[in-house]
Design goal:
The protein is of the alpha+beta class. It has one domain. The protein is 28% helix and 34% strand. The chain has 3 helices and 6 strands. The strands form 2 sheets. The protein has a 3-stranded mixed sheet. A 3-stranded antiparallel sheet has the order 3-4-5. Strand 4 and strand 5 form a beta hairpin.
């Protein structure tokens, strides 16, 4: 059984990216958001601004659409979350 969601904490140096998470409504919009987030970190050569699963230092991966929800893996555990719940369930802070 896949747990419904995991607590995710994303920290951004840019207000624009922080606001974009509220526009996620399907897998395509999530992919656009995630791609911009990864590019943002790479452009600034920043490491450690993504903390996942209550500070355990794990990064979500293997994203897929699963029956209209975002499925992803953190470490060895699989999770699912409704797209419209990402902004509420994943804590987004500005750093």
């Amino acid at each position: 059984m896949i747990p419904k969601s995991a607590r995710i904490r994303l920290e951004f140096d840019a207000e624009v990216l922080r606001n974009e998470i509220f526009d996620v409504h399907d897998f395509g919009s999530f992919q656009n958001f995630w791609h911009r987030f990864e590019n943002f970190l790479a452009d600034r050569m920043v490491v450690g601004h993504l903390n996942v699963l209550e500070g355990r230092g794990l990064i979500p991966s293997d994203f897929a659409d699963d029956d209209g929800q975002l499925a992803y893996q953190v470490g060895e555990t699989n999770y699912r979350i409704a797209y419209d719940q990402i902004a509420r369930e994943w804590t987004v802070t500005i750093r």
